[in-house]
Amino acid sequence: MVDLTEEERAAITATMKRMALLMDEIGWATPLGGLTEAQVRALIEEAVEGFREAMSDIARAQTPEVPF
Predict the structure, then answer these.
(1) Element holding 37 (H helix, E strand)
(2) CB atoms near residue 38 (< 10 Å)
(3) CA triplet 42, 48, 52: central angle to 5 degrees?
(4) Which of 40, 35, 37, 43 is nearest to 19 (CA)?
(5) DSSP label at 65?
(6) Which of 9, 14, 2, 21 lies closest to 49, judged by CA?
(7) How far is CA 25 from CA 61, 66, 67, in A?
(8) What angle, 0 to 180 degrees and rounded to 10, lies between the N-to-C axes of helices 37-62 and 6-26?
(9) Collapsing DSSP states into helix, strand and coil, what is residue 64?
(10) Of all residues in the chain, what percent carry a pLDDT higher than 70?
(11) C-alpha distances in angstroms, 6 versus 9, 44, 59, 64?
(12) What is the pLDDT of residues 38-60, one digit of tens each?
């Protein structure tokens, strides 16, 4: 098991919200085995991009601004 940081947990939560929107489009009743290759790819891309974006936002929020 990976020990996640508080920031990583927050990023995962943000990513879950993005993936839920995509699952709304796909249909929650669709079994994993019923997904097309394009749908699986879209879910993976959304997960990766969502996590990267959330971690970037968190880092930016925690970085003090340069005063000049």
Answers:
(1) helix 37-62
(2) 8
(3) 140
(4) 43
(5) P
(6) 14
(7) 31, 42, 44
(8) 150
(9) coil
(10) 99
(11) 5, 22, 12, 19
(12) 999 999 999 999 999 999 999 99
